[in-house]
Amino acid sequence: MSSEILNTMQISAMGMRAQGTRLRVITENIANADTTGKTAGSDPYRRKTITFKNELDKKLGVDLVEVDKIRKDYEAPFPLKFMPEHPAADARGYVKMPNMNTLVEMMDAREAQRSYEANLGMIEQAKGMAMRTINLLRA
Q1: 139 CB-near residues (< 8 Å, 6+ apart)
Q2: pLDDT in tens, 81-98
Q3: C-alpha to C-alpha distance for 9 and 126, rounded to whole angstroms
């Protein structure tokens, strides 16, 4: 197999790994959409975000995508919901809710899924090219 085909497969595999991690973070956010604090004034689940970076693979001589950081979102405020009977309610009866929007998370998940599938498609194309090359060499 040519080095270009192997490089393509490696680049796509790293992209799939990065998008898989992104999906895991998004899934965790969605799973905790209703996770509030346990006591009055305590903070609820804080949304996580993910960033990527390009890392030069010296062996391959190409940039590969990698997860840079997974962080908590300290910029978005916690929305308040009126639930006076909740144990985490403040003196006015409001509970801090997680600082995430399920609709935004679902759109991010769909984007990550499409990127994952695109990388998988590239691997399948590279594999097909390699198999056709092998078949040509056999003839």
Answers
A1: none
A2: 999 999 999 999 999 999
A3: 7
Query: Given this model, what pLDDT does residue 139 score?
Result: 73
- Altogether, the residues listed in the chain come to a count of 139
Decide which of 134 and 44 is more confident: 44
pLDDT at 62: 83
For the chain, domain boundaries: 3-131
Over 70: is that where the pLDDT of 135 sits?
yes
Q: Which residues contact 119 (CB under 8 A, 6 or more apart)?
A: 12, 13, 15, 16, 19
List, as own/partner pairs, every contact residues 61-65 make where C-beta atoms lie below 8 angstroms and the sequence separation is at least 24, other chains included: 61/7, 62/7, 62/10, 62/11, 64/10, 64/11, 64/14, 65/11, 65/14, 65/15, 65/18
Output the pTM of the full model.
0.85
**How many whole angstroms separate alpha carbon 29 and alpha carbon 18?**
17
Tokens for 10? 């490696």
Query: Are 18 and 52 a contacting pair, CB within 8 Å?
Result: yes
